[in-house]
Design brief:
By secondary structure, the chain is of the alpha+beta class. The chain has two helices and three strands; from the N terminus they run H-H-E-E-E. The protein is about 55% helix and about 25% strand. A three-stranded antiparallel sheet has the order 1-2-3. The longest helix has about 70 residues.
Length: about 140
């Protein structure tokens, strides 16, 4: 074996070793990047689901508030609000409405505290009021 061949073999081993080391470093960087991105995507999915849950609960509470505004005395007398507000895909929500009234000289101020909850607990609450004049 000549001196030139031994020198080329040594150079080939060094370049192969450098290539393997660079490949391993890139592989570690790629795996760690994938781990970080996977965590970010899973957190964004959870935040999206929470946001959708809140938006649906707000919609249900708004509809119940409109029912209350249409007939506050009926709600106070026991009419359930929220029965007709569960839209498609939103059947898991329960609506409760606590009412109070304050008599005034010319009418009644009705107040309601509407709470929307689901299997995980309270999702959203809303306070509303309506003044009903007794002056004709």
């Amino acid at each position: 074996m000549s001196l030139a061949n031994a020198h080329n073999d040594s150079r080939h081993i060094k370049s192969t070793t450098a290539f393997v080391v660079e490949t391993l470093i890139l592989l570690v960087a790629l795996v760690s990047s994938m781990g970080v991105l996977t965590q970010l995507f899973s957190r964004s999915i959870a935040a999206s689901q929470q946001s959708e849950r809140l938006c649906q609960a707000v919609n249900v509470a708004e509809n119940a508030a409109e029912e209350f505004a249409a007939d506050p005395a009926g709600v106070a007398a026991g009419k359930k609000v929220g029965r007709g507000v569960a839209l498609k895909g939103r059947d898991g929500y329960r609506v409760s409405c606590e009412t109070a009234q304050a008599k005034r000289s010319a009418g009644t101020l009705w107040r309601a505290h509407i709470t929307v909850s689901d299997s995980q607990g309270k999702v959203y609450s809303l306070d509303t009021s309506r003044y009903v004049s007794e002056v004709r």
